[in-house]
């Protein structure tokens, strides 16, 4: 079975899928959807951009009935991802007139309360969901299905306690599903404790080398920013995402790129939610065409035409590398992943090259680093200051043995 129309699901859902241009199922969809329709718990791992949202969204749309209260919950790590998944769920289920409540922080809570009252599906981040649950405005005691999208992230130390709390308010006989491009064994072990004989479904594990090429440059810390500017100007990317380790560095790099005449904006968890939304929406339309972000943008975001992902500093695990670079080369498109390494990055990069084939790029002959100065009057939080030549990263970036990936402040 390869076509959505061959599935035993409501014709209204098939119609909605056709309107979205979804005719053939991807591998993970073809393997997951029948199991979910069968009522099984599922742990599904398949590459970024392989259509995991529809793999849970289609069977949920099938199983949930209009007018019968909240029956399904989808939980994910960031507000932006929740928004995206919510929009997609809305599309799958529109001809069944299912109502989807989006529940995430940083925006006012009252409209969400109102929406929850008539919703059949809730899509949310754990923090705001718990907030509603404590206020008594969200009850999950009748749900049939629970999904953890980006499941390994949801079960790491940053979120696990919240997830456990939420789970304790759901019926034991619910159907539970986990989705991610990465699924470390220890996470699967944790998951099994609250799942019922889960079927483990693995689709494609790595983006084909024809589609995604990985490169790295060796560069001294002081010249990283200049090199980034140089490569961006040379490659002239359609849309580019630049990942940085901290909020301060993200602001700094975005500002410096703008100063160098490039159109760049920052995105991180320290920004006001309205601004986050605006910048991300702009980026979808190519304005700005460079987004400098923390790992808040690493997971799940589906942005068309991201041709380049830059690692301004190196993520600490191969999983986070996988998610960052998975913002490009999605759904059969091509892309480049370019990592800028200085000495401090080597420790983490060593782990990554064990799993991923990364090609070293020679330093371009005509590259001339420019000096970058900090001026006191510009403020980037209050960690920066004084007048000094700066390339970012050394004081704010990835320190060996520093924070683990579990930190939620991104
Ligand atoms: P994942 O969650 O696996 O990273 P997404 O669910 O975000 O992937 O899907 C990636 C992109 O592919 C989205 O733009 C989605 O609309 C599109 N897509 C998914 N499944 C199909 C399909 N069967 N046919 C056409 N496009 C699809
Ligand atoms: Mg996804």
- The CATH topology of the largest domain is Rossmann fold
Unique ligands:
adenosine-5'-diphosphate, magnesium ion
Classified in CATH, the superfamily of the largest domain is P-loop containing nucleotide triphosphate hydrolases
Shape: globular
Termini separation (Å)?
Answer: 41 Å
Give the name of the CATH architecture of the largest domain.
Answer: 3-Layer(aba) Sandwich
Structural class: alpha/beta
Strand content: 15-25%
Q: Percent helix among the residues?
A: 25-40%
- Could you tell me the mean pLDDT? 92
**How many structural domains can be distinguished in the coordinates?**
2
Trace the largest sheet across and list its strands. 3-4-2-5-6-1-7
The arrangement of helices and strands along the chain is HHEHEHEHEHEHHEHEEHEHEHEEHEHE
> What's the assembly state of these chains?
single chain
Report the major sheet: 7 strands, parallel
Number of strands: 14
Give the C-alpha Rg.
22 Å
Extract low-pLDDT stretches: 377-406
**How many H/I helices?**
14
Name some characteristics of this structure.
2 domains, Rossmann fold, 7-stranded parallel sheet, 410 residues, globular, 34% helix, alpha/beta
Report on this model:
The structure is a single chain. Helix content is 34%, strand content 16%. It has 14 helices and 14 strands. Strands 3-4-2-5-6-1-7 form a 7-stranded parallel sheet, sandwiched between helices. Strands 10-11-9-12-13-8-14 form a 7-stranded parallel sheet, with helices on both faces. Strand 12 (306-311), helix 13 (318-325) and strand 13 form a beta-alpha-beta unit. Helix 2 runs parallel beside helix 3. The protein starts with 10 loop residues before the first helix and ends in a 50-residue tail after the last strand. Bound molecules: adenosine-5'-diphosphate (ADP) and magnesium ion.
